[in-house]
Design a protein that fits this description.
single chain, alpha/beta, Rossmann fold, 7 helices, 43% helix, globular
């Protein structure tokens, strides 16, 4: 069953290191749903935005708690306000890889998937990660979900339960999106009030009630 709680088993927890801007949200939300649909727990810096703990300390703790990591480094364009690129995603990828390389034995089983919008573009701005598992999504949530689903399948033991296909996951996600307005109305939650934790919780309830 999908889990929305932030404190789950290390071996089934996935650190999601992706852009949080409005343009990227369709991909982010589909990624979170897909990971949960596959039976894993999503961890993300957004889960503790309201705590008094410094952001970097939260990220350290989340990375330590996750065997798996999904890192989208596609935000290399200059933003409209500062005319500068965002370096958070490559930085957090570096923290994840550093934990695997220099951490205690419990951290050395870490595995990560790197997502990019364009094929081979990373070689121009982050060539040191050549050799990592890097997949292209082209800004398409369906392609991002397919990459994550196939990667999680490759990480599982052969005796593990088969995961649903990417097409089925996206079908269920679209069903969740269609039903979300009514669910929010029943809970007296405005759409603009729906944060990361609440959304993940609603995804978990949706998957549970449908036996997915």
């Amino acid at each position: 069953m999908a889990k929305a709680t932030p404190h789950a088993d290390y071996h089934t927890s996935v650190f999601v290191n992706c852009p949080f801007d409005l343009e990227y949200q369709p991909i982010l939300h589909a990624i979170v749903f897909a990971i949960m649909h596959c039976g894993y727990t999503v961890r993300c810096a957004l889960e503790a935005e309201d705590t008094g703990t410094p952001r970097i300390d939260r990220i350290y703790s989340i990375i330590e708690a996750c065997r798996f990591g999904v890192h989208d480094i596609s935000r290399v364009e200059h933003d409209l306000i500062n005319a500068l690129p965002r370096f958070n995603m490559p930085f957090e990828l570096g923290l994840f890889l550093g934990a695997r390389r220099f951490g205690p034995p419990s951290q050395r089983s870490k595995q990560c998937l790197v997502l990019e919008a364009e094929r081979f573009r990373y070689q121009k701005f982050l060539s040191d990660i050549a050799g990592q598992d890097i997949r292209q999504h082209g800004g398409d949530p369906t392609k991002a979900v397919g990459a994550i689903r196939d990667w999680l399948v490759s990480m599982r033991p052969k005796s593990a339960k088969l995961l649903p296909g990417a097409k089925a996951i996206m079908h269920h996600y679209q069903d969740f999106v269609r039903n979300l307005p009514a669910a929010l109305k029943a809970l007296d939650i405005e759409p603009n009030e729906l944060g990361f934790v609440d959304r993940a919780h609603m995804m978990a309830l949706f998957l549970e009630t449908r036996g997915l």
